Amino acid sequence: MPSAWIAVCISVIVVFMVIGRQNNYMKYRIIEKKKGKKTEMSVEMIKDLIGQNVIINLFNESLASQGVIIAVEDNWIKVEEKKKTRIINGDMIRDIAIVPEKKVKE
User: Fold this and answer.
1) Taking the complete model, does pTM exceed 0.85, yes or no?
2) What does the alpha-carbon distance between residue 71 and residue 80 come to, in Å, rounded to a whole number?
3) pLDDT(80) > 90
């Protein structure tokens, strides 16, 4: 039984460390914006992905957004998911992964 408690405690500590690291990054981004520093994403690279199925990982979410990039304008990306359309701020994007199309068996 003590080993189960140790495992639970270690898991809780790891979760708090991950949440703390994400919060520190968001604080850093907010401070940089208040100072007037802008970090804009490369729109040209994102425009190459229009029409492709992608997975977009965001800093403030534990889950990713999967869909097709419809449009890119300034610092915003319009993504069409299965049941909804999202407009995502480019400052909140951690990374974008291209998902290969599923091949249908004949």
Assistant:
1) no
2) 10
3) yes
